[in-house]
Amino acid sequence: MDAELSNILRQMPKAELHMHIEGSLEPELIFALAERNGVSLKYASVDELRRAYAFKDLQSFLDIYYAGASVLLTEQDFYDMTWAYLQRAHADNVRHSELFFDPQTHTERGVDFGTVVNGIYRATQDAQEKWGLSASLIMCFLRHLSEEEAFATLELALPYRDKIIGIGLDSSELGHPPEKFARVFARCKDLGLHLVAHAGEEGPPEYIRTALDLLQVERIDHGVRCLEDAELTQRLARDRIPLTVCPLSNIKLRVFDQAKDHNMVQLLDAGLVVTVNSDDPAYFGGYVNENFLQMFAALPLGKDHAYRLARNSFEASFIDQPTRQKYLAELDAFFGR
Ligand code: HPA
Ligand SMILES: [Zn+2]
């Protein structure tokens, strides 16, 4: 890739819409927090932990991801993790980020819901103040747990309603279809929360359709398997339902073998509102710019695609209209449009 294009990808303003904050926990920070909190890990060193990051599918990743999150206990831990991510996002010229968090991973271990939200939220406020980087929180339900447990988590979240912009659905996709959570998503919609769900990462296109029809989500996280269903693909394009695609995640979790096999170009050619995101950057080999760089190096993508992907990221976001217009104006100026 030529230097001009790689500079454009690095420097263009962008939004990140699919990033699990627990997936930004770098091995060094896992070890530092384990020591600070007296938590023992089954890995002897940072290197040994990093060597375990050879995944064969989503579940083999999730097992390690939940083990890594076990070092998080105090509000300061959640703050430090979030601050480390926001610094990297700022360095990648991310202007706006929507962060997923998984409260059940922590409340199950006896960590208070408020400890989780307050630590993450305080870091987002500091990023706003320091750099003007806007960030908001999307609370995910773990789909391998029951709908009843999701309802209980929603109850815990109600006192923090003003700190949460939306609801997502993550963890093991196969065998846990969207309809399992139809009622709790309906309740979240009544509360005025934005709705998204992981669908069509490992699961079939049918899960994308049921996420739209039964959960009424506004965006699909991943969604790369939509192309197996032409009618669904047309619907996503016509209704401008954004897909938050995570290229390095897809490769690490064996959804595609290599970067050159990714279907990003086909998704764009189908007229879909594609965005590029890092998913779990500490585990998958890079933050958002690295995802752009590796896709553009491997696929026939150029400057116009860069503009379109950055534009999509702001259009697909849940930011207020004046802020969106401000970011889009900055983007147009950057590209001289
Ligand atoms: O990519 C993912 N898929 C499902 N659940 C997750 N939780 C963190 N990352 C992921
Ligand atoms: Zn994800």
Automatic annotation (TrEMBL):
Q: Identify the EC number(s).
A: 3.5.4.2
Q: How is the cofactor bound?
A: Binds 1 zinc ion per subunit.
Report if keyword Metal-binding is assigned: yes
Q: Which Gene3D superfamilies match?
A: Metal-dependent hydrolases
Q: Which Pfam families match?
A: A_deaminase
Reaction(s) catalysed by this chain's protein: adenine + H2O + H(+) = hypoxanthine + NH4(+)
Domain spans labelled Adenosine deaminase: 13-332
One biological process term in Gene Ontology: nucleotide metabolic process
> Which residues take part in binding Zn(2+)?
H18, H20, H198, D279
Q: Name one GO molecular function term.
A: adenine deaminase activity
Is-annotated flag, keyword Lipid metabolism? no
Q: Which co-factor is required?
A: Zn(2+)
Swiss-Prot/TrEMBL keywords:
Hydrolase, Metal-binding, Nucleotide metabolism, Zinc
Mind telling me which InterPro entries this protein's record contains?
A: A_deaminase_dom, ADE, Ado/ade_deaminase, Metal_Hydrolase
The residues that the entry says bind substrate are D280
Chain positions of site Important for catalytic activity: H222
Q: Which residues form the active site?
A: E201 (proton donor)
Highest rank taxon of the organism: Bacteria
Q: Which GO terms describe its cellular component?
A: cytosol
Similarity comment: Belongs to the metallo-dependent hydrolases superfamily. Adenosine and AMP deaminases family. Adenine deaminase type 2 subfamily.
The UniProt function text for this chain reads:
Catalyzes the hydrolytic deamination of adenine to hypoxanthine. Plays an important role in the purine salvage pathway and in nitrogen catabolism.
User: What protein name does the entry list?
Assistant: Adenine deaminase
